[in-house]
Amino acid sequence: TLDSAVYSAGQIRDRFSPDGWLALNDLSKTIHQFATTVAPGDDATRAMTVILRKLAGFSGLLHENMYRFTGWRFLEIGRRLERGIQIARTLARLTGAAAPEGALDMMLEIGDSVMTHRRQYPVQAGRRTVIDLLVLDPLNPRSILFQLERLKAEIALLPSIGGEGHMSQAAKEILQLNTAIAIKEPADMTAQALDDLASEIGGLYNSLAKAYFG
Are 84 and 144 in contact (CB under 8 A)? Predict the structure, then answer.
């Protein structure tokens, strides 16, 4: 929850820049205010736009201002894991046979990739192009493959477990998963394959927790 995030941030407040701390508090106050004042419909849409803008600002401050110590790496790893899981699960629902009309356009909106799709593909959104962009494109910062590439890079920089020169279990798993997805074609990514992918990405949590927090 947001309150848990604020509490956790408070435990490492000395690692936050003043601007980052102010941005987090502003985000918290805004969400608590909206929770009691925003009505369903257009009002909620406007409120979500405000929240997303403030989230982006907070994320930008963290990314630009925080020193790249081990704690920052775990923060970045957590962000990439969450994004990869969320994209995979949402794609499984919105590209499946039972998806509602307009689901592919909705998926591009959720993946913040509407304009990118228009530039990349001279056709309307189809299952193949949406999967290609949001799963398999290594240059799209919202794609699953992009998250896996970043995870591979950050996990490789974590403190060594089991001696120098030995890959941790998490490092082995992300290397295998990254390679497996990099060679896939859009047709390979069925709804079941996407659900399985979300579970595999989630499995990295357990490997990291066992290695560094167990």
Answer: yes
Q: State the Cα angle at 164 between 159 and 170, rounded to 5°.
A: 55
What pLDDT digit, counting tens, does each position of 51-74 carry? 888 888 877 777 777 778 888 899
Pair 146, 140: CB distance under 8 Å:
yes
25 confidence band (pLDDT: 50, 70, 90): confident
Whether 60 contacts 52, CB under 8 Å: no
Residue 66 exposed, middle or buried by CB count within 10 Å (0-12, 13-18, 19+): middle
Q: How far is CA 61 from CA 58, 140, 151, in A?
A: 5, 21, 20
- Residue 147 has which token pair? 């998250």
- Give the residue carrying structure tokens 């009505």: 39
180 membership: H or E segment, kind and range: helix 169-182
